[in-house]
Design a protein that fits this description.
Helices cover 25% and strands 28% of the residues. It is α+β, with helices and mostly antiparallel strands and 183 residues long. The radius of gyration is 16 Å and the shape is globular.
């Protein structure tokens, strides 16, 4: 028996009728199953980025779980992301571009996708930075480009408890890594 693959447009068209917490990877619907700890960490990161965006003008927007069409067979919905002011969409149920900062938090059901297929999609689509928050090792893996024109991520950091998460994308933003995991 051959599985029927969905196109990205067919998947997006299902909108509110599809089960929650799904993504389309290579035409296959993947169901995510986050844990309570996963969700708390996502909310904590998003809360701190949101505070940063509200602390000044023209600081973009952070949100989560919005469909992003990458190609004809892939629609991803990262755990959280940040888009700069100049690239903000007016509204909608999905976007057709990758945000500058993408955040994925380890979930047992999807980590294998996050660190492989999804990571490569974010990189090739032009994300400037990706944070992979690893709840198993209590670390944050940061991948960034040294310049916007770098063809791939050429800076990789592994931050643990006792270190501070910062990014050149959000001037003045900082988050104590231990805060993420001591929940």
């Amino acid at each position: 028996m051959t599985a029927t693959l969905l196109t990205a447009d067919e998947y997006i068209a299902t909108g509110d009728t599809r089960p929650p917490r799904t993504e389309l990877i290579n035409g296959e619907v993947i169901v995510t199953n986050p844990t309570i700890r996963h969700q708390e960490i996502v909310q904590h990161i998003q809360f701190h980025i949101r505070l940063w965006t509200l602390a000044g003008s023209n600081r973009g927007r952070t949100t989560a779980q919005i469909d992003m069409k990458f190609d004809e067979l892939t629609v991803l919905a990262p755990d959280a992301f940040w888009i700069s002011e100049g690239r903000l969409p007016s509204d909608g149920t999905h976007i057709d571009f990758v945000p500058e900062l993408v955040i994925e938090v380890r979930s047992p059901s999807t980590w294998r996708y996050d660190t492989t297929i999804k990571f490569r999609k974010y990189e090739t689509a032009g994300a400037q930075e990706v944070w992979m928050v690893d709840t198993a090792s209590n670390t944050v893996l940061v991948y960034r480009r040294s310049s916007p024109s770098s063809p791939e991520f050429d800076i990789a950091l592994e931050l643990g408890t006792g270190e501070t998460l910062t990014t050149p994308l959000l001037a003045g933003f900082s988050l104590d890594v231990a805060e993420l995991f001591n929940r």
